[in-house]
Amino acid sequence: MHRDLDILDVAKRLGIRILRRASNEEYIARCPFCGDSKKDPEHGHLYLNVSKNVYYCVRCGEGGDAVDLYAKLENISRKEAYKRIKEENYPTNPAAKERADKRIKYNSVAPIETRDKVYRAFLDKLVLEPEHRKKLLKRGLSWEETVKNLYKSLPEEPQQRWEICKELIKEGYNLKGIPGFYQREKDGERYWDFVDYKGFLIPVKDVQGRIQGFQIRLDEEEFGKYVWFSSRNKLNGTPAHAWQGVHGEPSKVVIVTEGPLKADVAHYLSRFTFVSVPGVTAIKGIEVVLKQLGAEKIYIAFDMDSLTNKAVQKAKEKLEKKLTEAGFVVKTKTWDSRYKGIDDYLLAQRKQKQKEVV
């Protein structure tokens, strides 16, 4: 029954603000987990799929079915959530269950060693377009750092994407199980492709420097700034996970912030080691990553609007508790509230120092 519960109705009853219809099957809403942006109340990252009756936030990675949504927001178990839903007579959508049963099955994610090799070979075939490099330089990175961090632009031409896939396969790389890659079918023939977003790739690396996956910084922000390089719900596709990134060398002091690009910039400007989470609630297993880095003291450096955003504040408290219980000394990092992110603040500090020198 879980997948035939009307996800849109459940979301509305839980007080989630529905913004608009994105397609025949999806609605965009404000995410109750990461809180979305307070600057733009009409901007949301939570996708509600009324065909499959599932939800997914492209910002923080939270996802699941209607029961998951109810359970997480009410802070109860799935069993208790299902019981309450039955008692409250939530409407069902039997047609959605039938569609869900026919949905495309996706692949399991390939091991990290395989992903790293395929992704590096993939990046070798791409370039970073001038307009994307310009944006990165504006954020405070050096030319050398943009090269070192392996940012690359996604090609827009279908033929170019298909040729890249052919080359990878010819070189012996298996694209099955690699998030972002999937197959198209035409005239009974199948061929490999990868998702065609307009933007540039941001590698998300693990403690050993291996590429786990990519976030994409989108050129057009109609549906958000960032999405995962993921081929969920595509033929022979593979979903991305909400990977945490490591930015810097092992250190006793580590700063946790939101977003891999922000962490890249902040690491470059400060030389401190950062761990990035894709969203303030995407913290599962973070204590393992921090222990692998040899961390002892952790600073949480979420955006300054977290001081007034109740959802983010709640997530921060949950992270503090989790890390304290894991044996870390946990502190909160704050700065001049005129600057939203720690990367913005560090860049402003550097510019001020440059002025003083002049």
Quick tags:
358 residues; alpha+beta; DNA Primase, Chain A; DNA primase DNAg catalytic core, N-terminal domain; Dna Topoisomerase Vi A Subunit, Chain: A, domain 2; five-stranded antiparallel sheet; five-stranded mixed sheet; 16 strands; 35% helix; globular; DNA primase (Bacterial type); DUF3854; zinc ion binding; DNA binding
Question: Would you give an account of this structure?
Answer:
This protein is of the alpha+beta class and 358 residues long. It has 3 domains: 2-101, Zinc finger, CHC2-typedomain (DNA Primase, Chain A); 112-228, DNA primase DNAg catalytic core, N-terminal domain, CATH 3.90.980.10; 245-357, 3-Layer(aba) Sandwich (Dna Topoisomerase Vi A Subunit, Chain: A, domain 2). Helices cover 35% and strands 20% of the residues. It has 12 helices and 16 strands. The protein has helices at 7-13, 66-74, 78-87, 94-101, 112-123, 130-138, 143-148, 158-170, 260-270, 286-292, 310-325, 342-357, and strands spanning 18-21, 26-29, 46-49, 54-57, 63-65, 152-153, 181-186, 189-194, 199-205, 211-218, 226-228, 245-247, 253-258, 273-277, 297-300, 329-332. The chain has a 5-stranded antiparallel sheet with strand order 1-2-3-4-5. It has a 5-stranded mixed sheet with strand order 12-14-13-15-16, with helices on both faces. The protein has a 4-stranded antiparallel sheet with strand order 6-9-10-11, with helices on one face. Helix 2 crosses helix 3 and helix 9 packs parallel to helix 12 (342-357). 39% of the residues are buried. The mean pLDDT is 89. This is DNA primase (Bacterial type). One of its GO terms (molecular function) is DNA binding.
